[in-house]
Amino acid sequence: MPAQRSSPAATAAVVLTLFSWARLSEQAPANGSTWSYLECKVSLPSLAFPGPEGEKMWPKRYPFCGGQFQSPIDFHEDILQYDSSLLPIEVEGYNVSSLEQFILINNGHSVKMSLSPTMHVRNLRNKFSAAQLHLHWGNQNKLEGSEHTVGGKHFAAELHIVHYNSDLYLDMDSAADKSDGLAVLGILIQVGRFNPSYEKLFNHLQNVKYKDQETYISGFNIQELLPDRLDEYYRYEGSLTTPPCYPSVLWTVFRNPVYISREQLMALQTALYCTQLDDPAPIEMVDNFRKVQEFERMVFVSFQQGFVESIVLASSLVAVVVLVLTFWLIRRTTRSRRTKEDKGIIYKPAISKEEENTSTA
Ligand SMILES: *[C@@H]1O[C@H](CO)[C@@H](O)[C@H](O)[C@H]1NC(C)=O
Ligand SMILES: *[C@@H]1O[C@H](CO)[C@@H](O)[C@H](O)[C@H]1NC(C)=O
Ligand SMILES: [Zn+2]
């Protein structure tokens, strides 16, 4: 559906050229991390990029990070366009048996859980199979850790469930750099009541405090991590939000957030380190979100923003008017009847009748 780029052929050509360029310029991977968020200052074993590297440095080694269609972005009125062809998201195989095991790993940038390719997203232009999920968050002092923002406003954290196009590619690795390779579900996370489903992840964080540590989690229903409404979302074509920032992601960011408790958010913000267990200078894993990128195209939305609200507002106004009118009519009828009764003999019962009326109003 939403491949509305101005000139698809030209874009594809540019993207392909860029891909081959990046492939050629990629060097043998160094042992340590070759990129970081500013806060996760990881010193590099290789001399290629010595010293701390923030996201401003990403394009030096990963040219796509300074290129087109970069994510995340801010969703604001000017770029949103309602698209009635956007069907509700459907997931398949997300209810994973507790006999199966997920691997949870601290990769030095986030906490990541591997997922089975038997999990799928439907209602996209191809079949997409799950590869992994991971989170982005801020730090203890602020409730701003999501990557995508709405009207300039951050949410507390964000969950990404990453899928690859299994109609066209064998696995995540071969799909990751293809323009139609990936589909990510983005779930905005806000502080509210305790969330037992998220706890199934969070209660293992202490086992992966340091980089490269792994643990196992019993299977559970991954759909519990999604918001209830899968029919309301933002849709656009963007990129991985971490190096190598390939512009290969069909994004679906749900409109409604999920809620976790303040304590749960705190656990996420304080449990992990970017550094290995034996590192003499441990660095906390905080603020591992990329800042929003410039975006000059359209984001398609499956819901009629503003419009729906005005319908609701209009119908409530009508309801109020009808109520007031009805009340007024009843009052008028009662009053005229009373006037007639006043001319009669019985005065007292009429007052008690009125009292009854007011007490139940
Ligand atoms: C990289 O790690 C391997 C084993 O994990 C080790 O043999 C090698 O010396 C390391 N290289 C550097 C540059 O640290
Ligand atoms: C998920 O699967 C379990 C059995 O493995 C079942 O008991 C449970 O009802 C399922 N949940 C949903 C929402 O389908
Ligand atoms: Zn992510």
Question: What characteristics describe this protein?
Answer:
single chain, 361 residues, alpha+beta, 13-stranded mixed beta sheet, two-stranded parallel ribbon, 15 strands, 26% helix, globular, disordered N terminus, disordered C terminus, binds 2-acetamido-2-deoxy-beta-D-glucopyranose
Briefly characterize the structure:
It is an enzyme of class 4 (lyase). The strands form two sheets. Strands 2, 3, 4, 5, 6, 7, 9, 10, 11, 12, 13, 14 and 15 form a 13-stranded mixed β-sheet that branches. This protein has a two-stranded parallel sheet with strand order 1-8. The protein has seven helices and 15 strands.
Give an account of the 3D structure.
There is one protein chain. The protein has 361 residues and is of the alpha+beta class. The protein has helices at residues 8-25, 58-61, 172-175, 196-202, 262-271, 307-343, 348-360, and strands at residues 74-75, 80-82, 90-92, 101-106, 111-114, 120-122, 128-137, 149-150, 157-165, 182-191, 214-218, 233-238, 249-254, 258-260, 299-301. The strands form two sheets. Strands 2, 3, 4, 5, 6, 7, 9, 10, 11, 12, 13, 14 and 15 form a 13-stranded mixed sheet that branches. A two-stranded parallel ribbon has the order 1-8. Strand 6 (120-122) and strand 7 (128-137) form a beta hairpin. The two termini are 54 Å apart. The structure holds 2-acetamido-2-deoxy-beta-D-glucopyranose (2 copies) and zinc ion. Residues 31, 45 line the site of one 2-acetamido-2-deoxy-beta-D-glucopyranose (NAG).
